[in-house]
Amino acid sequence: MKLGRNDPCPCGSGEKYKRCCMDSMSKQRADIIDELTQITAMNVNLSIDELNVVAQHKAAEYNHRPNDDFCGLSPAQMSNWLYASFGELENVTLCVPEDLSACPVMRYLSLILEEAMQHDGSFKATSKGNLPTKLVKQSSALLSEFNVSQFEIELSISEFAGSNEDKFNALHYARVLAELAGIIYRRSGRYHVKKTAQKQYQKQGIQAFFLPMLEAAIKQYNWGYFDNFSDDIDVQPFWLFMLWRLQSHSDVGKLAAETAIAFPALLAQCSNDEYCSSHDLLEMMISSRFIARFLQFWGFVTVDPRRYIDGKRVPRKVKIQPLLSHTFEFAL
């Protein structure tokens, strides 16, 4: 059902939608039109060209004005974070950390590349097209070296260990990213490392692939791949806004609330039912797709998976890892 201007806002504030989380761009256009109406009333001799200049100036002014709904970002800054290419993001610098030992994705990639380089650039896949058992065992053995290991008590259901690739989500994720990034490919029952990637690895080491793998994770990978949430609800475009906010307060609940206010259309896609509110559903999706199976797979954060301790529900907090601040430097 389409949300009307006078309907209650889905954020639960009790205000009408038009006075609360209505699309910020609509409010901006209305404000600009109001100002232009006042200007033309006071300057009746303005030509069309002069009025166009005034309109452009006012639009630019509004676009660069901090917006409370965006936690102080301007619409122009938000637009850049949503739509700019990976290499043209403003007010954030992406760096390649010198030490990637705490990054599961890159450690798994290193094992894949090493196995291929020892066999003239390729190795045999399983009959199902998965990574061989040898690599799965080597990757599982790395778990104790990652910060997430403190929460991985039951290894039979771990994301970071498994008896084969089908039961080892973090490794499967890394392999898929390597293919999306154009580092490896499968042909004739074997995994091959591209010749250019082999040369890069020999000259620069695993650091050569950190940003290409990260870009593949953000721009190409399907974040809903491992879960049963609706594919129509997509939190992926908002990754940088969410990362910026999470880095500032580490609170998953607060992050979900901020995301709902900044992008009310996203919240409107999360339907209430008798078991789960739209806010709860959005928070669960952010926890699963953004935090657990993006940030944790990369070693950027850790989060205690327990929702209840001694029968009491605990706030969902993440622990920011050094790798995150070494990778993303915000200038805001």
What does it look like?
- It contains 13 helices and 9 strands.
- The strands form 4 sheets. The protein has a 3-stranded antiparallel beta sheet with strand order 2-4-3. Strands 1-9 form a two-stranded antiparallel ribbon.
- A hairpin with a 2-residue loop joins strand 6 and strand 7.
- The model is unreliable at 9-14 and 17-22 (pLDDT under 50).
- By secondary structure, it is mostly helical.
Report the oligomer.
single chain
Shape: globular
Percentage of residues assigned to helices: 40-55%
- What is the helix tally? 13
Based on CA atoms alone, the radius of gyration comes out at 24 Å
Q: Count every beta strand, where a strand is a DSSP E run of 2 or more residues.
A: 9
Q: What's the end-to-end separation, in Å?
A: 38 Å
- Fraction of residues in β-strands: 5-15%
Low-confidence stretches: 9-14, 17-22
Summarize model confidence as the mean pLDDT.
Answer: 87
Physical arrangement of strands within the biggest beta sheet: 2-4-3
| Biggest sheet features | 3 strands, antiparallel
Order of helices and strands: HHHEHEHHEEHHHHHHEEEEHE
Summing up helix and strand content along with how strands pair, one would put the structural category as: mainly alpha
